[in-house]
Amino acid sequence: MKKIRFLPSSEIALLVGLLKKHKDWRKECINLIASENVMSPLAERVYLSDLMHRYAEGLPFKRYYQGLRYIDEIENLVINEFKNHFKCNFVDLRPISGTLANLAVFSASAKKGDKIITLGIQGGSHISHEEMGAAGILGLKVYHFDFDQKMDIDLKKAEKKILKLKPKFIVLGGSLITFPYPVKELKEICQKTKTKIIYDAAHVFGLISAGFFQNPLKEGADIITASTHKTFPGPQGGIILGNIDEKLQKEIQKKVFPGLISNHHLHRIPALYITLKEMEKFGKDYGRQIIKNAKTLAKALYSFGFKVLGKEKGFTESHQISVDVKKLGGGDSVAKTLEKANIILNKNILPWDKLDPKNPFGIRIGVQEMTRFGMKEKEMAEIAKFIKEVILDQKRPEEIKKKVIKFRKNFQKIKYCFSL
User: Fold this and answer.
1) Which CATH number do you get for residue 377?
2) Is 0.85 topped by the overall pTM?
3) How far is Cα 186 from Cα 160, in angstroms, rounded to an integer?
4) 277, 298, 333 — which closes off a domain?
């Protein structure tokens, strides 16, 4: 019998070719998307395991499927590691995104018609906190905090609003987090109305883990929801942590399953463990460098004439930078022009924006992935120069792209992780 040789169809060849083109292209890009990162080679290796083929419903040792004796042990181990690291009594690893983590917590904490207060999209809120997202799907009545001239939460107005509305919960954090929030002060107010504080730490979860951003649980937040793939450089997914009573714990667990998720993509769990252990060993250096890099890039852009937000407070205390580019064509135009030069970032709505998601006033920059590839202050200054040449000097993006490709060649190896 002749040996059968598999010859891929032209469609498969096209798909494989496109994947290769994407991989090769991104290795030549400066990625400044604030919501992305890369796993370490070791985390990636354990991610690609037999667990990706398996199915589990429910909690460890309380499953609705068989064949999970080792998976139960793995998941239980990882849950306990996160509890110990974050010093909390509740962890649920099962949400497969930060949005689903929010949906589970919101639905367990309030019912249709209840009032909540969020930052609002223009204040940095994530879409899932708002009426057009998860909060609206649940039928919650969404109100927003007021901000002062420095774009900090106006605590006097916040107190009046909380005492008047008596919201079931308030939501801090979200998509744009450059500075800590007044969690302690808000906790004192919220205690008067038995209002819970939910802190969406999706973007700063890694910085919190490393001790370089406010710890919401220590300062009075009841629950943290987060993504596990931004400043925390793990597999894409969500997580819920908190110091809450057993009744609310069980309610959240029921909302996760059977409410929102059946199988929770088991191959994520070992990769989460590796990432947490890497953050425990390398997180201090990684987190410190992220913040140094963000500040350096912000200062350099400001020195070139860009309108970088937060100057009076040092521009940023996180991985993120926010820049008003309204007079330079708007966020959509700037982001698309920079992509032509292999500089990847995203448009973003600003506090004084007209709330036009198609072309908002701002851009959002994150340095966590390029820091992961070993870039430091010197490289941030160089990146600022590239951005200046494209946007302010209006040089041909294709010309700067050549410089970017050459620059990026020296930063291909992932740092702050275990060696294979």
Assistant:
1) 3.90.1150.10
2) yes
3) 12
4) 277
